[in-house]
Known about the structure:
The chain is an alpha/beta fold.
Amino acid sequence: YELCCLHNKKNYSQNSKIKDNTSYARDEKDVFEKPKLFITNHIATQLGIDTSLVHDAIDIPKKTTLGDLILPLPKLRLIGTNYTELGKKLVNTIPSSKYIKTIVAHNAFIQIFLNPLYIYQTLLPKVLTEKENFGRYNEGKGKKVIIEFSSPNIAKPFHAGHLRSTIIGGFLSNLYDTMGWSVTKLNYLGDWGKQFGLLAVGFEKYGVKEDFLKDPINHLFEIYVKISQDIARENDLPDIHRKTDREAKQFFERMENGDEEALDIWRNFRSLSIDKYIETYSRLNIEYDSYCGESKVPKKTIEYVINRLKEDHLLKKKDGAMVVNLTTIEEDLGLAILQKSDKTSIYLSRDIGEALERYNKYKFDKMIYVVACQQDFYFRQLLATLKLMNFDWVNKLEHISFGMVKGMSTRKGKVVFLDTILNEAQEKMYAQMIKDQDKLKQIKNPKETADKVGISGVMIQDMQSKRATNYEFSWNRMLSFEGDTGPYLQYSHCRLKSIEDKNQVYMRNILTNLDFSLLDDKEAIELVRIMAQYPTVLSKALENSEPSTVVLYLFRLTHQISSCYKTLWVDNEEKRIAKARLALYSSARHILHNGLRILGITPIDRM
Ligand code: ARG
């Protein structure tokens, strides 16, 4: 049963009679709220039980065939009751109202089908006035969330894990923002460590200034590859000949000791790389509030962490390193190294320090790390260490994990940064578009369109299954216009937009003299019922942090829109009918538009 319902609000205050203006309601103007209250009050009175119990039990089913609202009677916990019998009795006692068309008792469930006219009247004017703001709520008002995502390592390849983190993190940022939270987006760069010593030495040997300025990320990576090869070669020689490795170590030590000359070189690598990052992330509509990184964690904070653990006798020496015992938190967590024998900080201690810094700086209500499942165990250790240190805000931390992508490659071979993937998506999309020259001529900026559509292909492929599932990266599948793909959603948006454009005369005052009773075809009714679920879908996605909740919904929506096209025409129809249908299509477009935006996709108007 849990699987078939979209949403179920769990806690709100207990009060006997629920009125329309009580504040627990997600939005009193939400289509489902008033009918829900009506039924709640009625059933609670009939059974002599608390209204909150009934209100909590009513859900919105995923499939509209099960009703617009559903009440699983066992959730009322009436011990010793035959729920099937009770259902049959109850449905006959519910008086008729403007909200409800039919109520059906089905096994232990009561299924409520709303009056389509009521849905049209409540939903369509709201969508058509609120437009891009429809679906925005202030549920999270006054609450602050920090979302850390993407976090690539400078001079190392941008792998599929970073791609997914970018896409899922971008989605979560938009979703929290839509729900009224104040969102701070962080990119925690891998910008510290021995590899920078290596890079500096490599740059002296292989660096070309112009190449670096033109394409810093790729150039640094090339240098990294070459100098690593040198090291590998020297490794076979006796110690005294291992010059490169020694120099790299020395350079990093200078960085660690605050040598300004060394730091200047490193800063230059970092800042030019960031300039490029900013440009590329903007293609995905992502703008970070801060590029933090491992380098920015204050040494002092890390020392404080180490000292505090020492004072509390939580730190032990093991083979020269300092380790913390986490088995008291959870058996399998074992020991975690916090400081190496040479006293340099490591990934884990930096993360602990960074978490402290962030809490002091932001006083967040929630902090989310979007990082691949390879680091599941690591994040458990991180959270456990913070817990061991008695930071009560550790409960506000959440690791959002995801599965692997297999076979992500591009024509140029190795993916060094995000733009290699995005460029290839654009090129492939463009190659498809030029096959239809007539259509191509109608598009104002075909290259830009190819970019947007190509990117939506990459993104939808990534977000259509549950986060935890692994998937196979496939250019052909993701860029196809057939089946459930990004280009298909974009196409659907374009088609709706062109209906609006062709009927601008009606669109100008679409809300006046609308006669919803003309929308009584079953395709239209099904469409508006799906549309009404949009706010609930967003709440559900916020609960489970699953982009697929939104993606699958948009497919349901667009499939139903397609079914409507077969019979519900606008062109050459009588004015009243044309207008009513237009209002329906235009509302559907706004919802599709807003949903795509939350996913991080730019909806396009023409393709
Ligand atoms: N730079 C890391 C990597 O590429 C990811 C950082 C994840 N975030 C964190 N706070 N540890 O593996």
